[in-house]
Amino acid sequence: MLYLGADHGGYELKESIKDYLDGKNIEYVDCGTDSPESVDYAPIAERTCKKIIESKDNMGILCCGTGIGVSIAANKVKGIRAACCSDYFSAKYTRLHNNANVLCLGGRVVGAGLAAELVDVFLNTEFEGGRHQRRIDQITDIENSQK
Ligand code: RB5
Question: 49, 64, 85, 104: which one is catalytic?
Fold first, then answer.
């Protein structure tokens, strides 16, 4: 399943991404926020990511003003590899090389058209594995070494 989350800075972009996903018949769960009212991004990133880590097949898209706040918060959740992207190459390679499971986007950085392209390549690119798996394992080791 694909899980979406946003604060007020990313709310409009999240809504545009939902329109894009609806047009492609891609299922998702919207974890909020549900309006442009000001709301803190960390709890939204946390609750969205806690759904994502329930299955290794899950993925997520998080939006805030810059995409940075949600990415920092998301990466605190064990098992999350969140990448803040605003260009096509990064959105593609964070799947190929980092096996990212969350795409973070800035509602004040990217427009709806570019966001749809980034979502499309993120969702349709497979992890390459091989030497990159060793590097992901090293990241997991860092996570597991924390108290
Ligand atoms: C909210 O104004 C803004 O700080 C937030 O959306 C995000 O950009 C934080 O990184």
Answer: 64
Structurally, how many domains does the chain consist of?
A: 1
The tens-digit pLDDT sequence of the chain (147 residues) is: 999 999 999 999 999 999 999 999 999 999 999 999 999 999 999 999 999 999 999 999 999 999 999 999 999 999 999 999 999 999 999 999 999 999 999 999 999 999 999 999 999 999 999 999 999 999 999 999 998
Q: Which of 104, 108, 99 is nearest to 128 (CA)?
A: 99
For residue 136, the domain's CATH number is 3.40.1400.10
Domain hosting residue 64, numbered range:
2-145
Pocket test for ligand 1, best of 70, 71, 75, 108 (most atoms within 8 A of CB): 70
d(CA 86, CA 66): 10
Q: Measured from the CA of 70, which atom of ligand 1 is nearest?
A: 10
Is the pTM higher than 0.85? The answer reads: yes
- How far, in Å, CA of 69 to CA of 109, rounded? 13
Pocket-testing residue among 39, 64, 105, ligand 1, by greatest number of atoms within 8 A of Cβ: 64
Contact 110, 86 (CB under 8 A): yes
